[in-house]
Write a structure and sequence with these properties.
By secondary structure, this protein is mainly α. The chain is built from 11 helices and no strands. The protein has a domain at 33-63 and 115-256. The chain is 73% helix and 0% strand. The relative contact order is 0.12.
């Protein structure tokens, strides 16, 4: 009796059988496949721990490189001194008080201190974002869309999507170093001739970070796959939340700069 051709193993063809390396790379080109693997596969902490470690490393590298640039440090000093000088001009602060305030600030804005503080901030922010964004995904998927996803699945999905930000961090670092401006992001802000933190249009353009939009789009795919909701609903929810948060941040920033 002739041998029958062997059938492909269901285990090998199952979405959950994707290797970690495949998940980390395929999230750029085939995110649906990656999130299906998260949904059907066994829990895997490496799905979020590895991207988290990589994003922290990029954040530290960003701080070490950016805060070595004299142009950027000088611009930061000017931005910090501007509100104090404005208070002196308006009579709300004496020249002596302003000098003391600037003296205290000087102790915390040297290159070494900025690199250390920036590195710590990068690590803390990345850890917070892994947890916080996953919480948003879980609440939307579980409460709003009535899906069956678990919180740890949301953490894994957000961790894998964070690979977008790992690449984005390197891109942003190159943009900042090239422009000499810490506020400029990859996107339409590159078209600004002379940036002003008091200009609403300029702040709005910096908010349109193409890497961030890519990251949110990938998150929307993950939310849709894990919760069973339509991609349109997931996209509208996440981009709507992003728009509200960005508008709030711009409003606060303009208030702080006295615009």
């Amino acid at each position: 009796m002739p041998d029958l051709p062997s059938q492909p193993s269901n285990e090998l063809s199952a979405p959950g059988s994707l290797s970690l390396a495949s998940r980390l790379t395929n999230v750029f080109v085939s995110p649906s496949e990656v999130f299906d693997a998260v949904k059907t596969g066994k829990p895997n902490n490496a799905n979020w721990l590895v991207p988290l470690c990589l994003s922290c490393l990029v954040g530290v590298l960003f701080s070490l490189v950016v805060f070595s640039e004299d142009t950027i440090l000088h611009a930061m000093r000017e931005a910090q001194e501007r509100p104090i000088q404005k208070q002196v001009a308006s009579g709300k602060m004496t020249r002596e008080q302003a000098d003391k305030a600037l003296e205290v600030m000087e102790k915390f804005r040297g290159p070494t201190v900025m690199k250390i503080m920036g590195s710590i901030w990068a690590v803390v922010t990345n850890v917070f974002m892994i947890v916080f964004v996953a919480l948003i995904l879980w609440l939307l998927g579980k409460v709003l869309f009535k899906g069956q996803l678990t919180y740890m699945q949301a953490v894994e999905a957000n961790g894998l999507a964070t690979m977008i930000n790992v690449v984005g961090g390197i891109i942003t670092m190159l943009v900042v170093v090239n422009t000499g401006n810490l506020m400029i992001t990859p996107g339409p802000a590159l078209l600004i001739g002379e940036f002003s933190d008091k200009n609403l249009v300029h702040l709005s353009l910096t908010a349109i970070n193409l890497v961030t939009l890519w990251y949110i789009a990938v998150l929307a795919i993950g939310l849709a796959r894990l919760s069973g909701a339509s991609l349109v609903k997931a996209t509208l929810c996440l981009f709507g939340l992003w728009a509200v948060l960005r508008c709030g941040a711009i409003f606060v920033q303009m208030k702080m700069t006295g615009a």
